Known about the structure:
- The protein is an alpha/beta fold and 164 residues long.
- 35% of the residues lie in helices and 13% in strands.
- It has 6 helices and 6 strands, in the order E-H-E-H-E-H-E-H-E-H-E-H.
- The chain has a 6-stranded parallel β-sheet with strand order 1-2-3-4-5-6, with helices on one face.
- The chain is globular.
- 32% of the residues are buried.
Amino acid sequence: MPLLEIACFNPESALLAQAHGASRVELCAEQVLGGVTPLLSDFISVKSKLSIPVNVMIRPRGGGFVYSAAERERMKREIEMFGREGVDGFVFGVLTAEGKVDGDACRELLGRTAGRKCTFHRAFDEIPEEEMEDALEELIELGFASVLTSGGRKNAIEGKEVLA
């Protein structure tokens, strides 16, 4: 049976996702910003009510995916905080100013996850198409379990040629 993960931006939508057959929830906040780290209190509420796994987006702000040292430190603290509360996995991505996977930053964040499965999120879609294959190999080597991408396009339908 295929996995159906639903991005949910509030506790109510997470409950609805499970009720309608989701296999897993990705809990985020601020859909208008493309998703940011949710409140810990929302995660605790959702986790106590769901029987399916809950992954959490770790993203300090909307906008691009190049983060300052202070933002990366915040991301590390958030990973540890959600980890203590029983999160099932994490969803994050960090790029360099040149639009490449920031391997050092990702390695640091992955090192805080206590072995939980991690997804590299749609930051991948900001990588130039001709570099996506190499970037994917790097993500596999870093230890990401999955990549959330629309093939560098607005949505997966538009990116189907790249995804094929």
